[in-house]
Write a structure and sequence with these properties.
Layout lengths: L1 H46 L9 H16 L22 H23 L12 H11 L17 H4 L22 H9 L10
Helix pairs in contact: 1-2, 2-3
């Protein structure tokens, strides 16, 4: 009897410990949802004066609050693919029903824009420490591959890298004697062929 009671108490304790985390998450989720609803209601009260001339103000305001809640909850504020399920009824399969659905989508976009203008975007995100943010930005910075190359000892031009010409240095063409009837180029050609001065003796 004592052993059975101990096992029952142990099982109840384990079940309570397991469900404590889930219950805590549910409470936070509910609290966040209530806060977002209050913020969206307050925002509509502040912005509704801009939308006095609407054909379907009820549908527009519903969409406005939904878009506002989306941004406050961490969304981008993009329109959903489909409207809420309440608009899937056959009564909305009419021209007037289509206008109400379009009013809901229009209000959704205006509500998301209002949330951005109110500075509510990203309030649901947990901030990280400055050190973690700096490390994250450092990892995203592209690496400069030039920092891995060894520094050069000196710069060499293409002229310094050319091989030295073999044979006697003939100098420049301006240093050659100018003989009558012969140009400097003809004298240089004669010297290069080893045929003397390149001048014919008369």
């Amino acid at each position: 009897m004592i052993r059975q009671t101990a096992v029952t108490l142990l099982a109840a304790f384990l079940m309570t410990a397991t469900g404590c985390s889930s219950l805590h998450d549910y409470v936070i989720q509910t609290e966040t949802s209530v806060r977002n609803n209050i913020l969206s209601q307050k925002a509509w009260g502040e912005w509704s004066w801009c939308y006095d001339d609407l054909d379907h103000p009820g549908d527009f305001s519903t969409g406005f609050k939904a878009g506002y809640r989306n941004v406050v909850g961490g969304g981008k504020g993009c329109q959903p693919t489909l409207p809420p399920r309440c608009y899937w009824k056959p009564c909305y399969e009419t021209p007037s029903g289509r206008e109400k659905i379009n009013s809901w989508f229009d209000g959704y976009s205006h509500g998301a824009l209002a949330a951005h203008q109110d500075g509510m975007a990203g309030i649901s995100e947990l901030p990280i420490s400055p050190t973690a943010r700096r490390n994250l930005m450092t990892r995203r910075t592209p690496v400069n591959m030039d920092s891995f190359n060894p520094p050069k000892s000196g710069t060499e031009t293409e002229e310094e890298m050319l091989p030295e010409p073999e044979g006697e240095d003939l100098g420049s063409r301006d240093d050659l004697p100018m003989l009558p009837g012969n140009s400097a180029s003809s004298v240089l050609d004669g010297l290069t062929r080893g045929g003397g001065t390149g001048v014919e003796n008369n």
